[in-house]
Amino acid sequence: MTERSRCSWATGSELMATYHDTEWGVPEHDDHRLFEFLILEGAQAGLSWSTVLNKREHYREVFDGFDPARVARFDAAREAALLADAGIIRNRAKVRAAVTNARAWLELGEQFGSADAWLWDYVDGTAVQNRWTSMSQVPATSATSDRMAKDLKRRGFTFVGTTIMYSFMQACGLVNDHLVSCFRHDDCAGQ
Description:
Elements: H1 14-22, H2 31-44, H3 49-62, H4 68-71, H5 76-83, H6 92-112, H7 115-121, E1 128-129, H8 143-154, H9 162-171, E2 175-176, H10 183-189
Parallel strand pairs: 1-2
Helix pairs in contact: 2-3, 2-6, 2-9, 6-7, 8-9
């Protein structure tokens, strides 16, 4: 039996391969899942994605299933408890950003009907289909992630720089950056 061809970043562990094979690049439209990815991508800044992925289940537990309405109500005591929790990335600015971003996320949803509607408008409602043949071609940012990051910052979000937002776009399928040799490229293109 031959191994399916995957993007090279996903070959380090079974957890990474499963994430790649089932989630990464799949167009996401659920506001709760989009919020989860926003928080996790911010937490990942400066670290490897595998670090975040290994802590993801605990994040879900302590961040109330990434329910933005609940996270928006976290107070200083709850933030202090999170900073003492070794099961997450204990960075004060990242924990604070999760709460700040939850509040801003709710406002985004109120203004546009859903955060999903706002996000997908950046790509005219259709995922950008790239046809990269090597990982060296895959960018870290784009003009779209630049605009998105700037708008989010204007709306009070933090930890939403252009690199984080491009990674978010990849994870949530706003852009299909699976290599053309990857078995997931065509699957994600058809969604």
